[in-house]
Amino acid sequence: MKYKAAIFDLDGTLLNSMDSWDNVGKTFLENHNIVPPYNLNEIIKEMSFNESANYFKNSFGIKLSTEEIIKSINKIVKNKYIYEIELKPYIKEYIYKLRSKGIRMCIATELDKTLSKKALERLGILDYFEFIITSKEISAGKSKPDIYIKSMQKLGLSKEDIIVFEDSLYSIKTAKNEGFDVVGVYDKSSKKDLQKIKKLSNHFIYSFKEMEELF
Question: Can you give the pTM of this predicted structure?
């Protein structure tokens, strides 16, 4: 099958950003001259921002309100997207190749739109995407298919014309259940689900360098 368009996720798919998320708590504590525990990520990975903030207050004596801690963490995250986070290898080459073939592309992400644009603009590929749709603007995360359906509607194409690029198991499940073909993209944050991702995806890649001819 030859597709006419591609819907790309950002975090873990185009952006090599999951390590940055893992290091947010570490950076926050180091900014307060506190040595983070070796297992910090394991401790806070299932916590909400509020729960993480309260953990920092109660466990390390941070003299800030919960709201101030959340604001500080958000600033760390924002700076990482604006200044630090890089593309995964071979993304530019692949995006350029699709553009040269007339393949239409968009972004469907759970990341804030402003941060998405700033990161993609700094990395030199923002203009290759027709639009960005975020979970926030449609009030639904990727456990629901709304973001893929809205992207399809904006592209003015059918599901058969579109392929979705995702790295997380739950997102791949959602897109597949809605009837989209999916390329599963390896990211170490989803390593524990790797076999399930491989089985569920129409195509699976460890790197965009090995991306087979789909268009």
Answer: 0.86
